[in-house]
Amino acid sequence: MTIAVEVPPVAAQLPADFLWGYATAAYQVEGSPEADGRGLSIWDTFSRDPRHTEDGKSGDIATDSYRRWEEDIALMKSYGVTAYRFSLSWSRIIPLGGKDDPINPAGIEFYRKFMKALIANGIEPMVTLFHWDLPQALQDKYTGFCSRQVVDDFVNYAKVCFDNFNDLVNLWITINEPNVYALMGHLVGTQAPGRSSNREISPEGDSATEPLIVGHNLLISHGAIAKLFREGGYNLPGKKLGIVINVNWGEPYDDTPESKEAAADFMSASSDWFAHPVYLGDYSERTKQVLGPNLPTFTPEEIELVKGSSDFFGLNHYTTYLIRRPTAEVSTTNMLGRFMKGVEVTVNYPDGTEIGPKAGLSWVRPVAWGFKKLLQYLYKTYGKDIYITENGVICPDENKTPLPEVLNDDYRIKYFRDYIDQIIALKDTVPVKGYIGWSFLDNFEWQEGYTARFGVTYIDYENDLKRIPKKSAYYMTEYMGKAIAKK
Ligand code: GBH
What we know:
38% of the residues lie in helices and 14% in strands. By secondary structure, it is α/β, with parallel strands linked by helices. One of its GO terms (molecular function) is hydrolase activity. This is Glycoside hydrolase superfamily.
């Protein structure tokens, strides 16, 4: 089936080398958890407990992309994309994860043939080393990222990847959303490894300290991997390595100085927590203040290691929130509220109007002007080239809408258009080098299981995981094909 799309005339405004495409992550699409010597990851363990996902399902099958990769690449090629962002499964490459553990040649072979096929089809691989699926053995051995021991194991894994894939990869990403991994996995506990002080959720964990320690170890790992990349001879001309941070824009709720301070606190406790050490060195004073005395301290050597360790700003951005000072005492079960002291998040203005229309999940409302403000803020604050490494939405009730109506995702089309138009509007003032939408396929959406469909491609879970392009896929092909100058 082909859906007719109408795309208005668009002048080519983005440079010919502007990358565009879609993203996925290994655990969200691959399936085949036991195939060819793969070891288990914390997401296998976590999601096999049906209490941990909305539909009680795990990523055991996902979109079966480990087996259907040729079909996936052919589909991507038909979309006209120039890049594909995906992640490597650490436990496919080193099943037990550690630096003295054996390497699995079958894992390496799989990713090499996959990358070669992408390149043969004119699609640039954008490769993430760690998108949350830590080998379970490392979690068992020393509590994963809660322990400093993880750094050497992570650096070793990165070295194995550089040695085996650097000839095929120009754009490396070390870590996807360290802020989300730290908070969802060790504060709230609704994502793997599922640790939290909330004993109804987890028998183990300390929300007051662990997220901060995990964040610190992620930053040091990233710094050490960047050092290896640069000093180990991998940083050849045209190659780049960076980190991807999830950043929501925090807009002051109203014009009061209190709300402005609260919004600045929100930014410092969510994204600047990672961006400041990476781009400017050390945690900012405001981050130290908001996150409090449990925030670990860097040695001067560590500050140097982490500072300047990312060649670009990798930005995952979805939405904007209104921020004010707390209007009531923060309850003990509101983990995020207690973590970000002095910050309250809302989506309603003082007069009750909403910041943006409801989407298919409560946390992701379209607010394109917030994206514009964020891009300006990030470039002014950190001065780096920006790659949009994820951006996307779910249509209202998308999961309840049957075929074929579900393919008419005009809500997603509008979201993509409005957000990309901000990049175009800023093209002479903020250097955005690429746009990667989330996601190529509907997939295993972590704690939401398969109930949240972010894809431009519909997956028919009832019919052998058939891939069916949504209208947005056709629209984007047309639109980006026109908006990007021809080579
Ligand atoms: C990204 O995270 C991930 O990188 C990607 O893997 C994921 O599939 C994609 O977004 C879509 O979600 O349920 O109210 O507690 C985005 C950041 C942080 C957004 C955690 C959802 C949970 C909100 N995510 N958040 S809630």
